[in-house]
Amino acid sequence: MHRQLPGNLYSSQGAAYGPHVLLVDDDLEESRPLVEALSRRNFRVSAACDGLHGYGRATTSMPDLVLLEAEMAGMSGLAVCRRLKANPRTAAIPVIFLSTRAELEHRLAGLSTGAVDYIIKPCAPAEVIARIDIHLELARGYRRDDLAEAVQNLSAADVLVRSTQRYLSDRLRDTPSAELLAQALGTTEKRLVRAFRECLGLTVFEYVRHERMRMAKRLLAQTSLSVGQISAEMGFSSAANFSTAFREHTGVSPSVFRKNSSLSHMPALSAGLTQADDGQGDPADALPA
């Protein structure tokens, strides 16, 4: 079992504290040199030994920056970061990952959750602090306190749904199974299903189907991609299956929807030409300079 440092680790100098850094790591003893270095710089450091407590501490204490171990038992650091970025109260807090996993795929996975940096362990405390200084300086342009007061506080279910939506936004083509999805969000299938029912009145599968159809309608109306290309982009096994699902969702086939969408833009274009030629101005005024 990992030894743990106290949950609140304050500057040892007793002076007015500087920025508040939250450290979330399941091996806090390993981070003692970093904590001591931060203390000497007069940072106020608080700590959590797992992802669930780390997320809770972040939402209640609103630290200036979060140092987050990427891989922890239970709720992983990736899942914590997804929730922090989905919650308007904590979305602007910079998150820096600390991890022993140096592979490119792991670094990209961490950054894709919204983290501002990914540092490979073991690392020199001086380097970590230098990066903290940079990201705190960049973050000073955001007034998180004003933002936190302006936005509506979200329930735990709302945050879970928002983080799931963000996670699925670029995975509509290859949607993970319910088990893998729940694991990526640091929750259980049962809680995930309950959150979607409570917040959207849909199952996760129904939400994915709705988003695929919404994206398909946008592609049909705004691009020249073929029906076959769009069906592949949306993860359907064939254009026929896509057409059937699209008709069930909208009541018309993809080709009819595209035709109707193109026709719906014609009156606006005609109105623009009429206005330019109605005697109220020079027709050339309607053309770009």
Provide the CATH top-level class of the largest domain.
Alpha Beta
Number of helices: 14
Write down the Rg.
Answer: 25 Å
Supply the number of structural domains.
3
Low-confidence runs (pLDDT<50, min 5 residues)? 1-16, 268-289
Assign the CATH superfamily of the largest domain: Response regulator
Query: Strand count, sense and closure of the main sheet?
Result: 6 strands, mixed
Label the CATH architecture of the largest domain. Answer: 3-Layer(aba) Sandwich
The fraction of residues assigned to DSSP E strands is 5-15%
Number of strands: 6
- Secondary-structure element string: EEHEHEHEHEHHHHHHHHHH
Instruction: Find the structural class using helix and strand composition.
Output: alpha/beta
CATH topology description of the largest domain: Rossmann fold
Characterize the overall form.
elongated
How far is the N terminus from the C terminus?
Answer: 71 Å
Biggest sheet: strand arrangement: 1-3-2-4-5-6
Helix content bin: 40-55%
User: What would the average pLDDT be, to the nearest integer?
Assistant: 82
